[in-house]
Design a protein that fits this description.
By secondary structure, this protein is mostly helical. The chain has 18 helices and 6 strands. It has helices at about 35, 75-80, 80-90, 95-110, 120, 130-145, 150-175, 190-200, 210-225, 230-240, 245-255, 265-280, 285-290, 310-325, 335-345, 350-355, 360-370, 380-400, and strands at about 5-10, 10-20, 25-30, 55-60, 65-70, 70. It binds s-citryldethia Coenzyme A (SDX).
């Protein structure tokens, strides 16, 4: 039975339909609000605004729940692989063995990139950030591959081409940035092993593929694969709503993810922990600066727009630190600092009152360091993991008849009517 809310504005009563989701989330449908009342809503950052209906990922921020297509993240991290999880997100169900094998074959077939693309890398200054290169290279992919056609099969090949090539392009960016020979993908390696091999193999010292590292990378990318309407996914949906090709929409998502408040936080956490380790910044100083409104310093890797309890991904990432560092030949002092800083923050009233807990980025950098990934590649690693989620959300947006061109309204606060003043008559006040 449909439910309604009543809104009384300027003596006029408006009935607003209530929309309820499959996990009991409720929304006021305000699509008629402006035409019937002249009013719009105001919600900077969209913290209270639903931009779409989605069947891909469910999060419960109060209970720390995260499920992809209904499956708890803990089960997927424990039992699935990144390729299988990518298939689940994009297709809406787990693949059969035959479908998984076919998907893996396609990912291998699509893994090389056009030789002409290598020239692009060479034109970047040596210190270019890999996220800027990646965003541009994904957009450039469109020039090498035909436009999307409507056939599902073609669309799926485009998705797999993107998922396969983002991994090759990222490893290539790393090798070229170090002036090392590019290592090509191998048809005999799975998705994650291929990436590690392209990153670390060399003619001088052959890379030994460690199954635990491969497993850790699968889990790392499963944890990052989707997160409902986060900032970068919103960018992909907004850009995609103009019906531009998927490469351009994903390129926008990479740019949004780069920011330190979003995916760039994993790099910022390591810089913060290094500052504590190398510069001797005390935990008390960290906490007091994080509490100081005027300082601008934030405890990176802490806090979340949705989670008001421990991010379930951070719990898994924290456990991974022990497993993967147990393998590493050297201890990482930053892990001990991270643990003690977390303890200190979680007992502090400011963090308790504001429900600030570790998010996925707090421990992920430690895991990546243990894998040998350089810090400036951390957000690239996040982007590779998030790509299946961006694709799934882009596909859902495009297929939803209720979705339209993304074009929010505003509250204008500028000049009232004003007029042009000829140059010689102008003063600083005009
Ligand atoms: C990701 O959306 C997603 O799902 C993102 C993500 C994904 O998978 O896509 O989960 C990935 O981006 C994780 C978040 C990574 N970012 C960081 O770790 C950066 C540090 N965190 C903060 O910048 C902040 O917590 C945000 C940006 C993550 C969330 O901020 P909100 O929701 O906009 O909340 P807010 O900034 O309004 O914070 C509420 C209060 C504020 O104090 P008051 O103005 O109420 O006094 O909490 C304070 C904030 O100052 N606060 C922090 C803090 N985070 C929030 N204070 C100190 N340190 C922090 N980290």
């Amino acid at each position: 039975m449909e439910k309604f809310a009543k809104l009384v504005i300027d003596g006029k009563e408006l009935t607003l339909p209530i929309i309820e989701g499959s996990e009991g989330e409720k929304a006021l449908d305000i699509r008629r609000l402006r035409q019937e009342t002249g009013y719009i809503t105001f919600d900077p950052g969209y913290g209270n605004t639903g931009a779409c209906k989605s069947a891909i990922t469910y999060m419960n921020g109060e209970k720390g729940i995260l499920r992809y297509r209904g499956i708890p993240i803990e089960e997927l991290a424990e039992r699935s692989t990144f390729v299988e999880t990518a298939y689940l997100l994009i297709s809406g169900r787990l693949p059969t063995r035959e479908e998984l094998t076919r998907t893996s074959v396609y990912l291998n077939d699509f893994s090389p990139i056009h030789e002409n693309m290598k020239a692009f890398y060479g034109s970047y200054p040596p210190k270019s950030h890999p996220m800027g290169i990646l965003s541009a290279m994904i957009n450039a992919l469109r020039s090498f591959y035909p436009e999307l056609v409507d056939l599902d099969e073609e669309m799926n090949q485009t998705f797999l081409r993107l998922i396969s090539k983002i991994r090759t392009m990222s490893a290539m960016a790393y090798k070229i940035s170090r002036g090392h020979r590019v290592i090509y993908p191998r048809p005999d390696l799975c998705y994650c092993a291929n990436f590690l091999n392209m990153m670390f193999d060399s003619p001088v010292v052959p890379y030994h593929i460690d199954d635990d590292m491969v497993r850790a990378l699968n889990v790392f990318w499963i944890l990052h694969a989707d997160h409902e309407q986060n900032c970068s996914t919103t960018a992909v949906r907004a850009v995609g709503s103009s019906k531009v090709n998927i490469y351009a929409a994903v390129s926008a998502g990479i740019s949004a993810l780069w920011g330190p408040l979003h995916g760039g936080a994993n790099q910022a956490v390591i810089h913060m922990l290094e500052k504590i380790h190398k510069d001797g910044m005390s935990f008390d100083e960290c906490i007091s600066r994080a509490r100081d409104k005027n300082d601008g310093f934030k405890l990176m890797g802490f806090g979340h727009r949705v989670y008001k309890t421990y991010d379930p991904r951070a719990k898994i990432m924290k456990k991974m630190c022990d497993i993967i560092l147990g393998k590493a030949t050297r201890k990482d002092p930053l892990l001990d600092i991270a643990r003690r800083l977390e303890e200190r923050a979680l007992e502090d009233n400011y963090f308790k009152e504001k429900n600030l807990y570790p998010n996925v980025d707090f421990y992920s950098g430690i895991v990546l360091r243990a894998m040998g990934i350089p810090t400036n590649m951390f957000t690239v690693m996040f982007a590779i993991g998030r790509l299946p989620g961006w694709i799934a959300q882009w596909k859902e947006d495009l297929g939803d008849p209720e979705m339209k061109l993304c074009r929010p309204r505003q509250i204008y606060t500028g000049h009232e009517i004003n007029h042009y003043v000829p140059l010689d008559e102008r003063t600083e006040e005009s």
